[in-house]
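Trying the structure run again after the queue cleared.
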Amino acid sequence: MLPPTAPLSTRREDLLARLKQDCTYDLAVVGGGSTGLGVALDAAARGLKVVLLESHDFAKGTSSRSTKLVHGGVRYLGQGNIALVREALHERTTLLRNAPHLAQPLAFVVPSYHWWNAPFYGAGLTMYDMLAGKAGLGNTRFLGPRATAKALPTVRLEGLQGGVQYWDGQFNDAKLALALARTAASLGALLVNYCGVKELLYAQGKVCGLVAQDAFGGQDYQVHARCVVNATGVWVDTLRQLDKEAHIAAGGRAVKPMLAPSQGVHIVVDREFLPAETALMVPKTSDGRVLFAVPWLGKVILGTTDTPRHDLAREPLAFAEEVEFILRESARYLRTAPTRSDIKSIWVGLRPLVKPPEDEGERTQALSREHTVIVSRSNLVTVTGGKWTTYRAMAEDVLAKCEARGLIDAGLAGRTVSLKLVGAYMDSDIGVISVSAPEGLHCYGIEAALVEQLPGNGAVLAGNLTEAMVRFAARYEYAVTVEDVLARRFRTLFLDARLAQQLSARVAAILREETGLDPKEADFLQLAKQYLQIP
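Done. Tokens:
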């Protein structure tokens, strides 16, 4: 195993000094979620000069609020979207190979309580295996009642007739986003968080750059680029509204929104409710949606997706009926179901689903997860839709569209297929950590040794979180605020919001020492209250 290379510093003053330089980038990406980071990494891997700007923190929005699954999309088979499933299954294997410290295979069991459940779901899951081919993670198999209960120790036994086991993947979404950012930076890209875009620049009616503002110092920066990509997730329409040429094309009217956002609500409970390394999956709940109970970092995530939502709040609140639905449906499958008092954290992710043309009323669970790339007449490139698993394929498609319009010379695609992300082990014989293991040094992969060398390695804040990890986040992982550390560099807020409150003061003190900036502890304490707020 090769020793880790010294990580690149992410001191904010250095990043802003680079941003201030007078130069023209090949590509300016707006948005630091999975899509934008994927585009920046792919472009940097091809040798392009790249800058990425994010108005908040990397993966602050949807990309840190997924169900933590790297999957082909079993339910998309029911929609007949074979192409999307096949692509996602291929990308699933690529992601697991390139970031083994952050993504691992995970077994799922679908419990059966009716005689027809197992053969019906088994047939679909067998097709799932066939589509995966050599990219499969394990064969689907039928389980009897005893084997099902062994895989899911707390499953409801009354009426249990067996189950079906299949394989998908699981990952740490926010940490993977950070690995994408740091890998792109190692290839020469400039990435700056907390630097939102407030204006687009034009030359002869075509977008030629943008104006961004530092959220901490308030200074504006002009950034010139041959091509600007709008990859802001559920907020793509906000940036599209800044495109003056698009307004002209629309006859002075507002640009027509292209998204129909939906939400995914997740509640986190202690592992005692599902003490296993196997996830429970219900393909069809009482209202036709999917329900998951997934072991993750020492806790269990209960969740569902696809409720239409019309607001685009940065910190959306869960609907009361969604919480009741998750708890009620969980009680149908778990012997001891969690109650409201058992919830450790609750969070909502917004999904950027592309709206069907001339259709304002379609249910979001019926909309496709395929991504869409459009280029305005001013050459603003917008990408939205898709899902975490296919971020890499989406990036290749975006760059292909940019090249087709003559905006960049994209070079050869496929540079990221075998590109190991920062922290990834190079040895094929390195074992993976259990998906149910609490978060710790293993999430740093090969860089764990570097973390251990920092001051405070023996100073434990809580669980496996040390002072050294906070210093590493501030020096090398773009962390500026308490939220950056406790929500995304370490997932405490998502796992146990009350514990995150208790850690905030110590984390804030370390960040002040490391960065000299306001770590916004008061804002974090207010946010943590929301993650404990059960409607």
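The first strand starts at residue 24 and ends at 30. Worth checking whether this holds up in the mutant runs.
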